[in-house]
Amino acid sequence: MPTGEKAMEKDLSRTTNSMAPTESEMVKLGKEMERMKTNAELADDGMVPDPKQ
Predict the structure, then answer these.
(1) In sequence order, what are the residues at sequence separation of 6 or more whose Cβ sits closer than 8 angstroms to the Cβ of residue 45?
(2) Interior CA angle at 29 toward 28 and 30, to 5°?
(3) CB of 10 within 8 A of CB of 2?
(4) How far does the chain reach from its first CA to its final CA, in angstroms?
(5) What are the structural domain ranges in the chain?
(6) Read out DSSP for 1-53?
(7) What pLDDT does residue 45 have?
(8) Tens digit of pLDDT per residue, the chain (53 long)?
């Protein structure tokens, strides 16, 4: 396993998050998640939240 600065550069260049691989997509995903209701809010509205996975 390489060490040092080159190894760090290599690690940073890898895609580690397939849901939001770019910063702009992370911002967009964050805004979408902020608008989502919590499980408690869903239950208060008489809805059934998704099961835990």
Answers:
(1) 37
(2) 90
(3) yes
(4) 33
(5) 22-48
(6) ---SHHHHHHHHHS---SS--SHHHHHHHHHHHHHSPPHHHHHHTTPPPPPP-
(7) 95
(8) 455 555 545 555 565 657 788 889 999 999 999 999 998 999 999 999 888 77
